[in-house]
Write a structure and sequence with these properties.
Blueprint (H helix, E strand, L loop, with lengths): L16 E5 L7 H9 L8 E6 L1 H11 L6 E2 L13 E2 L2 E2 L6 E5 L14 H19 L5 E4 L4 H6 L7 H8 L6 E5 L4 E4 L9 H4 L2 H17 L7 E5 L14 H15 L3 E6 L1 H6 L8 E4 L2 H12 L4 E5 L4 E5 L16 H26 L1
Parallel strand pairs: 1-2, 1-7, 2-6, 3-6, 7-14, 9-12, 10-11, 10-12
Antiparallel strand pairs: 4-5, 8-9, 8-13, 13-14
Length: 363
């Protein structure tokens, strides 16, 4: 699917290891990470955290959470660990949480404040997490929320996590897939202005995204023959060309092409009527044409349980479906439900991947 992606080192661990980036230190990222790992969930895997040590200490003290992580540095070549080393890095056992601290911020922690320094630290943590996965030290990456404004201030010319992860892993096609208990939503376009959506859509783009999500549904979610429902772009899906012709010119040919390959696919559907009538219940995934078209119904159906999965990467990556929530940062009000779901789904995806690889070897 993506021949340009960077290969991932193999490992022989008997348990999952997750890399976790702390996100924007002035947002709710560190808070939801700490809350998610304070419970039983952390005993299902080993964890490697990336970010400044003072950030974890600050939010743990704020919430009254005991220090449950270990501050570690790269071991010398002669060091060893009971759980095994990978390139001199100790691998955490189930229930262990290792913090690989970055340098400390000069401006300090300022909850609710958008800053270039916070944006830079957040992206450096993402980069370190990707490297951990590429080297085989971790099996998946879970990212806490970043601020798109802060990363732009820091000089990063990407609109979000998805695009940056694609850049880091040299992935040509990456997709944004949002999931919760009731639906899975894939996006044809991601972080682009609404005024540019129609001009950005092509039959080729939709066809590539359909193929990308189809393979993700099979490999990551264990659905052998998924049914994908496709939404239209315009009100009433164009109403036969009366309210826009993108459905006829662009979307319908992509749907027909995918159906000719023998896949289950339907649409393009009018978005409002489709969700209003419960059409998503009859599909394994819905392909929305743009960000808010798909994410509004998903978040309405379960805001604190949604997970963002990046399809097409050579590494498993999940994240909560919410942002930095600067308005409540530092107030101990953030709900960690979505972060817990992101961690749990990453563990499930790792186990499914390992089982499939074991089956292929034995076969």
């Amino acid at each position: 699917m993506n021949p340009e992606t960077t290969p991932i080192a193999a490992h022989n661990r008997s348990h999952p290891v997750l890399a976790v980036s702390l996100g924007d230190m002035n947002g709710v990222g560190p808070e939801v990470v700490l809350k998610a790992l304070s419970g039983d969930l952390r005993h299902e895997a080993g964890f490697q955290l990336f970010g400044p040590a003072t950030v974890l200490e600050y939010y743990a003290n704020l919430m009254g959470i005991p220090h449950f992580w270990q501050d570690v540095q790269k071991n010398s070549p002669d060091d060893s660990s009971e759980s095994g080393d990978v390139d001199g890095f100790a691998v955490p056992k189930p229930g262990e949480v290792f913090l690989y601290p970055s340098s400390e911020p000069e401006e300090g922690i300022q909850p609710g404040f958008i800053s270039a320094e916070a944006g830079a630290f957040a992206m450096q943590a993402v980069s370190a997490g990707v490297l951990a996965c590429q080297s085989g030290r971790a099996d998946a990456l879970v990212t806490a929320p970043i601020s798109k404004e802060a990363i732009q201030k820091a000089g990063y010319q990407v609109p979000g996590h998805t695009e940056y992860l694609a850049e880091l892993t040299r992935t040509r096609d990456a997709g944004m897939l949002l999931v919760n208990d009731t639906m899975r939503i894939g996006l044809a376009t991601i972080h682009i202005p609404v005024r540019d959506i129609a001009g950005h859509l092509t039959t080729e783009l939709i066809d590539r995204q359909l193929a990308l999500f189809f393979e993700t549904l099979r490999s990551a979610f264990g659905i052998p023959d998924p049914h994908i429902a496709v939404l239209g772009l315009n009100p009433h899906a164009g109403d036969g060309g009366v309210i826009g012709d993108e459905e006829q010119r662009i979307i319908e040919p992509a749907v027909a092409k995918f159906r000719e390959r023998g896949h289950q696919i339907s649409g393009p559907w009018p978005a409002d009527g489709f969700f209003g009538s419960g059409g998503h219940k009859n599909a394994d995934m819905v392909l929305a044409m743009y960000h808010d078209q798909g994410l509004i119904p998903l978040k309405l159906s379960g805001f604190n349980k949604g997970v963002n999965v990046t399809a097409g990467l050579p590494v498993i990556r999940t994240s909560p479906d919410h942002g930095t929530a600067f308005a409540i940062a530092g107030k101990n009000q953030a709900d960690a439900g979505s972060m817990r779901e992101a961690i749990a789904l990453a563990i499930t995806m790792i186990n499914r991947k390992n089982k499939a690889q074991t089956g292929n070897k034995s076969g």
